[in-house]
Amino acid sequence: MTALLVFESMYGSTAAIAEAIAAGLADVRVPATVCEVGLAPTDDAPSLLIVGAPTHQRGLSTPRTRETARGGVDATVSPGDGVREWLDELAAGARGRSVAVFDTALPGRLAGSAAHTIARRFTKAGATLVVPPESFAVTGRSSGLRSDEVERARQWGRSLALFAAAAATRVG
Fold first, then answer.
1. Is 124 helix (H, G, I), strand (E, B) or coil?
2. At 29, is the secondary structure helix, strand, or coil?
């Protein structure tokens, strides 16, 4: 099994979660390529596709919310288009893929979830979610992750590899 992990990140929190998930996959011998969304291929067909993004205004970022997030910041991790636009390019190639999705968000019921939006788009395109969407908590706009979230992301990566392997065994 191989994995492609695509992420969008403004200040680095979602990128840190992506790297931790990849480390968790590696812990159980699942090689993962981690790719910022602006550099991500749309024609690669790994065994498992993992996609993550920050939650903006209770959902997946848009060009307007990304521009607002960049306001006053000299550089962001993802300087161009985001996961929304990448998914538009991938749409036809999503059918039959095994996917997992995650986001970073402020905790609380009003925070919303980019991961749920990504999951809906994947399932509508015919992909199979191997686990429910996962959310990792940030403490503020640019103040970073809660202290335990990186380790939780690594553990999620380990369990994700096991769920994906089990799902592949049932299908194959």
1. helix
2. coil
CATH of 3-171, one of 3.40.50.360, 3.20.20.70, 3.30.390.50, 3.90.170.10: 3.40.50.360
User: Which two three-digit tokens encode residue 64?
Assistant: 């307007």
**For the CA atoms of the chain, what is the radius of gyration?**
15
Task: Say yes or no to pLDDT of 25 above 90.
Answer: yes
Tell me the pairing of strands 134-140 and 128-129.
unpaired
Residue 131: predicted pLDDT: 93
Quick check: helix, strand or coil at residue 99? strand
Quote the CA–CA distance of 136 and 155 in Å, as a whole number. 12
Joined together, the tokens standing for residue 59 give 């959902």
Q: How far apart are CA 92 and CA 56, in angstroms?
A: 25
- Give the β-pairing of 98-105 and 48-56: parallel
Give the tokens for residue 68: 């607002």
Give mean pLDDT, residues 147-171.
83
Query: What are the φ and ψ backbone dihedral angles of 85, each rounded to 5 degrees?
Result: -70, -35
